[in-house]
Amino acid sequence: MTDAPVNLTRSGPPETILDPEPPQAVAGLAEALSRPEDQRRAAVAEVVSRFPRFLDGWARLGLLARDDAEAYAAFRVGYHRGLDRLRQNGWRGSGYVRWAHEVNRGFLRALAGLQATAAAIGERDEEERCKQFLHQLDPSWPPADWRQ
């Protein structure tokens, strides 16, 4: 613990909004998710392989995973890719990244999925870190539809 002061602006912590995803990736994901259930996972995996920086693609792949280990891996990739994208968009390790902005949802969905799968595999420390991080990024977390 440190005694260093926390410096906030008058308007509170800064807010980061990610840059838009490529329209082709968004369209490809929408098409993949519209496929019959037995084809969705493979179709989403194709989109992610074409657009490996597409955060919501990784999050959706985690939601469609065949088991907890596969889900954990997909969510973790989405989370780490998301941290890279946040930093590229000016985030410096603190401040808001809110669900209200559609472009932030892939990252937040990946982080929430990581929290859920960490719980499922017994990684309690990581589950708690993810939970705290989500509430720091968006104090109104969780939205009812984060899995949709």
Give structural notes.
The protein has 148 residues and is mainly α. The protein has a single domain (23-137), classed as Alpha Horseshoe (Serine Threonine Protein Phosphatase 5, Tetratricopeptide repeat), CATH 1.25.40. It is 57% helix and 0% strand. It is built from six helices and no strands. It has helices at 23-33, 37-50, 55-63, 68-88, 105-120, 124-137. Helix 1 (23-33) packs antiparallel against helix 2, helix 4 runs antiparallel to helix 5 (105-120) and helix 5 packs antiparallel against helix 6. The longest helix has 21 residues, at 68-88. The N and C termini lie far apart (38 Å). Mean pLDDT is 93; it is low at 1-8.
Sequence-ordered SSE layout with sheet pairings:
Elements: H1 23-33, H2 37-50, H3 55-63, H4 68-88, H5 105-120, H6 124-137
Helix pairs in contact: 1-2, 2-3, 3-4, 3-5, 4-5, 5-6
